[in-house]
């Protein structure tokens, strides 16, 4: 990021290639609509470009990036008039499940089981309260630590840790048939 802030445009391409998919998956799993996720992702990267000159190394770039994504997501949720469920879009649900399904090198039975597990996981994550879902997705998609999640969401360490613990417990309960 410091290279990009210093004028190296190729550094932006590197940052984008490294982090674009993780940020998109975090946003998409929060809003559940591909077009909205695409727009929010674009907003996040515009914010990266806009804030490049004022960027200061206070945490990992990834933490800063997911903080930007969190803020864009919160802004969107505040202004959105209604939220679409995965049930409302079978195509979006299928696409999301496809990102979690086992490699095609597995046989058809294993792929079917994997698709069922992926669909169950998506449904279970969707049922989590917003704060727990966000903490879980920041860790699962963003690979953020508990401290980084706390920083990204503006809460203290213990609150972030509790949200993750409750999210995992709820997911274990919902997915116990697959264990």
From TrEMBL:
Superkingdom: Bacteria
Keywords noted in UniProt: DNA-binding, Sigma factor, Transcription, Transcription regulation
NCBIfam families to which the protein is assigned, alphabetical: sigma70-ECF
Claim: NAD is one of the keywords in the record: no
CDD domains for the chain: Sigma70_r4
SUPFAM superfamilies: Sigma2 domain of RNA polymerase sigma factors, Sigma3 and sigma4 domains of RNA polymerase sigma factors
Start and end residues of each RNA polymerase sigma factor 70 region 4 type domain: 120-171
InterPro entries in UniProt: RNA_pol_sigma-70-like, RNA_pol_sigma-70_dom, RNA_pol_sigma70_r2, RNA_pol_sigma70_r4_t2, RNA_pol_sigma_r2, RNA_pol_sigma_r3/r4-like, WH-like_DNA-bd_sf
PANTHER family according to UniProt: RNA POLYMERASE ECF-TYPE SIGMA FACTO, RNA POLYMERASE SIGMA FACTOR HI_1459-RELATED
Name of the protein in its database record: Sigma-70 family RNA polymerase sigma factor
Similarity comment: family membership: Belongs to the sigma-70 factor family. ECF subfamily.
Residue ranges occupied by any RNA polymerase sigma-70 region domain in the UniProt entry: 15-81
